[in-house]
Design goal:
15% of the residues lie in helices and 35% in strands. The protein is of the alpha+beta class and 242 residues long. Strand 9 and strand 10 form a beta hairpin. The mean pLDDT is 96.
Length: 242
Amino acid sequence: MLDPSLPIPATGRTFSARRRIRLGDMDETGRLRLDAVARFLQDVAIDDVQETGWGTPEHLWFVRRIRVEVRTPFHEDGELALVTWCSGLAAIAAGRRWSLTGDGGGRIEVDSVWIHLGPDQRPARIESFGVYAEATGGRPVSTRLELPVPPDEATRSPWALRAADVDLHGHVNNAVHWQAVEDALRGSTVDTGGALVAELDYHHPIDLSDRLELSTDTSDGGLAVGFHVGETVCAVARVATS
């Protein structure tokens, strides 16, 4: 179970950065969108591992599961501060936490699990991870996915992919999944103006040539979104008020 309540560790490595919130990061109400948050998280994580030598080309990291808790929405914030650290460890996976605070009072807490791959893009054991391991406090992580797939009767509709959605690895970027979730939120009853819990499980990568369909379900009071390529479920997201 991901835990976005873990405090910033007193010992072990942490990495800090600041980002301006730009016009393209906000919706028409001024809310910082989930896909913009995902870009900030991804960029800061990459900066961190490149600084320690745990980045490309020797090491690749692919997100498996992420939980975003919007404790206080970013509405009046022009800049945010991010702190990230390793929240847990397994043989071929590691947890990563982020804490985001805005200069206008916004606050977001995030926990995630990432699979470690070698340069051949195959899962690889994590060896000599001391630079990050101390901050975990000995906590393990699990790569098990938890979100249920929307039921077969859930509404499905095509969602077009663009050339700009694909990153260096040839797959649809993590942040693009959250763009699709933002689209689905517009047609839901979820109140995005307050505190939210947003989760995303990544089952399989999505390629530009795939014919992607989204399924949506609101039967439990939140919004569930399935990412389908044919009969394959590539990802599942859920957003609900908290």
